[in-house]
Design a protein that fits this description.
Layout: H1 4-9, H2 52-65, E1 69-73, H3 76-85, E2 92-96, H4 101-111, E3 117-121, H5 126-132, E4 137-142, H6 155-165, E5 168-172, H7 177-180, E6 190-194, E7 208-212, H8 217-229, H9 235-245, H10 248-267, E8 272-276, H11 286-292, E9 299-304, H12 307-317, E10 322-323, E11 333-336, H13 337-341, E12 351-355, H14 361-374
Parallel strand pairs: 2-3, 2-4, 4-5, 5-6, 10-11
Antiparallel strand pairs: 1-7, 6-7, 8-9, 9-12, 11-12
The structure holds pyridoxal-5'-phosphate (PLP).
Pyridoxal-5'-phosphate binds at residues 75-77, 100, 102, 143, 147, 172, 174-175, 194, 196, 206, 208, 326.
């Protein structure tokens, strides 16, 4: 099998038999012609039910992730919502206590009052996960590295617990993509992505995806839900995401290398109390991350010595970084995470989250050094 870098570079690029075009066209049509006998011989009838550009993206993602099928949604949250709604009413769900706040809010505010129970667990301890399981636990949701503390969860350990207890094991792979981590190898049943981040890669398109490791009634139901609820990914966004995927390997390799240099620099600074980056040997999940990830990712966070005021002053002083939320684009971002997570956040007010982009590492480090001194 080709190296992942090669599969990425060629993603959905088969020269068109009619025109020789290397890059597939975008199919914006919403409806498709029937034959005189009323059938749809080419397999498409209405774009919400199925669209050739979206299908190309779905097939590409399924293949890269090592799964068998994928459904692409209008955002990462639409994809997450589709997974959560597939859990039977009355079920109990385990969620990391450090997790993307949008997923926590979705479950707490939209599902908890309608018969889904939730327990937030420290997923760095397999014992805590096992002890939190109830007879009605229907899903374990994992995010590793976690957001925003970059905690590492043992995917293989969770896979064994989930399989032993017959619980759906879902991994949000947004921060890693299949280029860095492939959760199906550790027993995950479903992988969810926000395509808005590294897969799209240019901060210009929203998208989400759910990929399944195996055929299941649940995935059939989830596919039906995609059609019926209508939160499908549009053809242009599907096409843009495919374009992003072709450069994912080189982008992420550079971003991971820069992130390691930035984290190493930050660790030397007296203005910084702690750096959260699994690529640092001081990180408690470093060895586990080295085992289950191909590289340590391009997200990191750090806590300013001096609380919220100093954190805000650092963010206020940057010139190469941009103060903005999100991640995975070509430009490096810095954000005061607690203020975006809202009043119920448990994130320290001194924490700044950083998404490393494609700039030269020296420029980023100099920008941070100047901002730290000024703060
Ligand atoms: C880990 C993770 N999962 C899911 C999402 C939601 O994705 P979207 O913004 O595409 O809905 C995000 C967004 O920041 C995220 O970071």
């Amino acid at each position: 099998m080709a190296h992942l870098l090669t599969s990425l570079a060629h993603a959905a690029c088969n020269p068109d038999s009619e025109t020789g075009a290397l890059v597939p066209p975008i199919h914006p049509a919403t409806t498709y012609e029937r034959d005189p006998d009323g059938s749809y011989p080419k397999g498409y009838k209405y774009s919400r039910d199925g669209n050739p550009t979206r299908r190309q993206l779905e097939n590409t993602l399924a293949e890269l992730e090592g799964g068998i099928s994928c459904r692409a949604f209008s955002s990462g949250m639409a994809a997450s919502n589709a997974v959560i709604q597939s859990i039977p009413i009355g079920s109990h769900v385990l969620l990391p206590d450090d997790v993307y706040h949008g997923v926590r809010q979705l479950i707490n505010e939209q599902f908890q009052g309608r018969g889904i129970q939730v327990t937030a667990v420290d997923m760095t301890h397999l014992d805590d996960i096992e002890n939190a399981i109830r007879p009605n636990t229907g899903m374990i949701w994992v995010e590793t590295p976690s957001n925003p503390l970059l905690q590492i969860t043992d995917l293989s350990g969770v896979g064994q617990i989930a399989s032993k207890n017959d619980i759906l094991f879902v991994v949000d792979g947004t921060w890693t993509t299949p280029f860095l981590q492939r959760p199906f190898e550790y027993g995950a049943d479903l992988v969810v992505h926000s395509l808005t981040k590294y897969l799209g890669g240019h901060s210009d398109t929203l998208g989400g995806a759910v990929i399944t490791r195996a055929d299941s009634e649940r995935f059939e139901q989830l596919s039906k839900y995609q059609q019926q609820s209508g939160a499908v990914l549009d053809p242009f966004s599907s096409w843009l995401t495919l374009r992003g995927i072709r450069t994912l390997g080189v982008r992420l390799s550079h971003q991971c290398s820069t992130a390691r240099q930035v984290a190493t620099f930050l660790e030397t600074r007296s203005e910084v109390r702690v750096v959260h980056y699994p690529g640092l040997s001081s990180h408690p999940g470093h060895e586990l991350a080295a085992k289950q990830m191909d590289d340590f990712g391009a997200m990191l966070s750090f806590e300013a010595d001096g609380g919220q005021d100093r954190a805000m002053a650092i963010a206020a002083a940057v010139k190469v970084f941009t103060r903005a939320t999100s991640l995975g684009g070509t430009e490096s971002l810095i954000e005061h995470r607690a203020s975006i997570e809202g009043p119920e956040t448990k994130t320290s007010p001194s924490l700044l989250r950083v998404s490393i982009g494609l700039e030269h590492p020296k420029d980023l480090i100099e920008d941070l050094e100047r901002s730290l001194i000024k703060s």
